[in-house]
Specification:
- The structure is a homotetramer of 338-residue chains.
- With 338 residues, the first copy, chain A, is of the alpha/beta class.
- Chain A folds into 2 domains: 161 residues, NAD(P)-binding Rossmann-like Domain (Rossmann fold); 161 residues, Dihydrodipicolinate Reductase, domain 2 (2-Layer Sandwich), CATH 3.30.360.
- Helices cover 28% and strands 23% of the residues of chain A.
- In chain A, the strands form 2 sheets. Chain A has an 8-stranded mixed beta sheet, with helices on both faces.
- The two termini of chain A are 19 Å apart.
């Protein structure tokens, strides 16, 4: 059995990791850590009663000593916090999967610009592998430290990557209109996350100012002449993201784009391509590790349209993290996920 | 025009007061106050954009000086805070309507037991009139300080008061199973109020330990031999309370209870009696000052059943407050409300 | 008092009309009609209990005889049904406001294409005035028959009309990504409208195939060289529409577009312009007749971005209808609405 | 591998069965049937896209011929329909699990009274075993036909059964105030199930008239001198039921009731007993086969209070059905469920 520890197990992403890993036949959840836990630790299923009878172990404050008995550590911690932990544990275990943004951006000046702190672990930043399995599988196989993608980038990059590989993202205008469930913002005390603020409302925010933009730009290798606009919105959903991806071409390419997608993802278990002009609904990916891609055809004029749906806690976080672990440890990629 | 000021105008109750008073033809909203406002004040409709174009005045930190130009002050402040304001303003205006719990409980030892602080304004506590208009109209007409009822007590007392007046609450067992929308908990930073915690959930809380219990017991004059159990629950609603009131009688009284209700409330504009065994739905009272009473018949055995619905921000707070103001100032009781 | 009748008073739009008109000091609701009513009629507030104590009149099956005592008739009927009623009542009253699509499209061949039936009342189709008050006020003043705009067109046209008047919609690519509450689909038996299908879901539908497209194209006078794409989505909301309007210009115009909007709507009471880059939230227009316009600035590249919010039952239907009535009858335009 | 067929696979219960059985390592879903399917059948994952890539088999109209290759058939059909199928298949397979009400009530006159049709399969009605595993495990082991319990009865009976076995339900007054998610009403065209009717609403219905009452009365062996009142309510939830069970005793029994529960369920994997006065939240049982029991203490007076939570599609339907299959076929009871 693979022994794993999860830091930040009480948050929405941490709990989803627990849910997936409990269902994983080759994994044993051995350690759970979180902030604001009483000194001696607390019973996890008292704090997160959905796991009563399933995982009645203790959750404790983090301690480096406990790491060495483990094979894998998942860090479901806030941005700028993870990079305090990685250097202390990276040499004690086979694999660290970091679900924060700390190891995603290769250029520390870009990191500083968007997250407003200096990166404090440049050594491990270099060795970190970006963990979107479908586009980086070979590197993940040998990874020691995996930077698990952001929730928006997961769905958006998967919607655009085949076009990039086909050389069709040159000089285009990309517009992404995304709607996200509120768990994407984390489990924190914030007026904007209250039920009475989110229900019966739609709230656009951080228009062209969201910190996930540089991650998308980096992976898609967008140049300044390729325009990228990102309009995220909070909608009354616990979970799930639907991305409307609009690509305005200077002129229509001669290749059949739908076929590019069909071919590119033909062997992928977690990418489901809908038929041309068929639209996916968000609910069909919830509680799964799937990314559904649909429509995949031209709108009026030179705009190509792709809908991508992911569960921000699934393919956008915990599901993706388990998929990465499976690949990195040489397990069957879908174990615990399908 | 009646000049009014509202303290705590940014909260859910404060906003609802603004909404009602904007619709009141004899009122002018002259002052708005709140905590955590920049020193020079801020434009109210920037903070609460639903009022853009409707009330573009400033909201400021509270200042006693501004009160004397006013006729009425509404205090939509947290419990234990209102009693700091009342002594400073009570003699400067015609009427103070306090929407907190601070002046509802006549016995300061009971107040201390439930709110855990000593009452600091015993003088005004004595003169305060409990503002459930339908049961206290005559006293409200001469009131200088009105203690506006709590949201749960509003619906529950209205459901039980006719029985008390008929002498039928002696030796009974009362059980109230209430479900409330989340705005009843106020607009505050609290994990339990987050969308991702409240949606797709029902959460019982403070079973027989809710601070509204002594208010109900006081008004209904319940004795220790009358048992009262209160089981409140948070449900995924922005607003609204539905109370299921079960009264277990030692033996069935000979009087026809339905008729008692019909008669007691026959002249009341804001109490709507449904036909016997007809059930009200919560949605029909939302955004109104109505209290709907339904079923009003026996269940199996000696249990009489009453459903009462109110909007916790309407009849349970702001609507009730406006109704009280109307009565206290000699206006038509329904002005601005229907 | 202006005597009005409402056909289709039981649907979501019909009820909202009743709500607005009850609040209108110069109107008396005299007749209510609906299908599927028992022969002798039924008490309206039994069917729609939110109006208990407010409007306890009967709702009946439609009868032409009853129309002649009225001043105004509102038709809140399904598409293709209204045109059966208009010819029978148009000469009996001062004003008919039709909330269906039947009199919006000037070209009957376009009507047939999108609604799949022949238009059966060409004579009145000609005289009908398109009732988006802000762009057609003078014609509405003399109107006998008003074609009240569709819910999506209301917000989208108001977001684009100033640009058209400034001659800036030539050769552009317009993309509108709209999210609508479910009441826009009407109160009908349909699996897709069930709570368990709509909650925790987002569902794109009728991509570039929605019947509101020709209405928008007609009013904005779009030519075939101007591209228009429309991507509507159902989100878990009872009511409200947020439109994300993206206009891709071949090159940036020299004029300051924000100023065009500020000027164009400077006298309008129901259009609220947010400051540049400031974003409106949907909740702030719910239960109102406002259209909020925000962001109003360039995204990356040559794409101009406008957010428009309306309540589909307010400015998108019933509120707009009352505003039109006010204008047509020479009343104050905001009466009953603010 | 155990070969199973599911009739009614498109409804909410049917889909949940598919979800559980896909996760069951010893089961192969071989046949799917539903009404209103095109003659040649349709691809199941086209109709229910959440199963795209997971179960891309055909769903067809029911045919008895296909049954004989199967080991188990689940009938997720409406009441009064199942009894048309059972006689045709019962001798062709090892086990039939019927999720309708048709085989739950032992007395056909009671069945007729509540479901308004004559029972048409008295022979199999006699042999049917009531499938609440925790109270009927031994009989289920030898069952050929299992009558899977109703969603309300599952949670309510589990909350009361230990008291009955302890002889403590004599002469008591039982009051059950239940709130259910809307999927309990099935996936059918009904105005009352629309999002715009259910959201922001609570609707009591069938007070003391719900068809699940006789099932509860039968299993708990309630006599006419024991009073039972049932007040179900629809709340804005996709799934889940929370039952507030109030038992009014003529006088308090001397036994410690909490201990009775702890002992009775001490070996049960799917019953989770909360500590005394600790309250469960509904969300913690969603998507699971758990029944959570909490509070388990006295209220004011002689009323004992139990909260029970189940997922109406889990322990209240599909999860329970899989648990029953496991027991009947001699598999590990929790396989596919934990």
């Amino acid at each position: 059995m693979i022994k794993v520890g999860i830091a930040g197990a009480r948050g929405y992403t941490g709990r989803e990791l627990v849910r997936y890993l409990l269902n994983h036949p080759q994994v044993e959840i051995t350690r759970l850590w979180a902030h604001e836990i009483k000194p001696g630790g607390e019973v996890f299923s008292k704090i997160c009663p959905e796991f009563k009878g399933l995982l009645d172990v203790k959750i404790k404050r983090f301690s480096t000593d406990e790491v060495k008995k483990l094979d894998v550590v998942f860090l479901a911690l806030p941005h700028t916090v993870s990079m305090n932990y990685v250097p202390r544990i990276i040499n004690k275990v086979r694999l660290v999967v970091d679900l924060s943004a700390d190891y995603r951006l290769k250029d520390p000046t870009v990191y500083k610009k968007w997250y407003r702190v200096n990166h404090r672990d440049l050594k491990n930043l270099k060795r970190a592998v970006y963990g979107l399995t479908e586009i980086n599988r070979e590197k993940i196989k040998n990874a020691k430290l995996i930077a698990n993608p952001g929730c928006y980038p997961s769905g958006i990059i998967l919607a655009l990557y085949p076009l990039m590989k086909a050389g069709l993202l040159r000089n285009v205008d990309i517009l992404v209109d995304s709607k996200s469930g509120i768990s994407g913002a984390g489990r924190k005390k914030d007026i904007g996350l209250l039920y009475a603020e989110v229900a019966e409302n739609i709230k656009p925010y951080k228009v062209n100012g969201h910190q996930h933009i540089p991650e998308i730009v980096q992976v898609l290798q967008l140049k300044s002449r390729e325009k990228f606009s990102f309009i995220p919105q909070v909608v009354p959903l616990i979970r799930g993201i639907i991305n409307m991806v609009y690509i305005h071409f200077p002129k229509k390419p001669s290749k059949e784009i739908f076929t590019i997608y069909k071919n590119y993802y033909r062997l992928e278990k977690f990418i489901r391509i809908y038929r041309k002009r068929e639209v996916p609904e968000l609910k069909d990916v919830l509680y799964t590790n799937f990314c559904d891609l649909g429509y995949l055809d031209w709108l009026d004029g030179n705009t190509f349209f792709i809908i991508s749906c992911v569960d921000n806690l699934g393919k956008g976080a915990a599901g993706q993290a388990v998929q990465n672990m499976n690949v990195a440890l040489g397990l069957n990629e879908t174990t615990g996920l399908i």
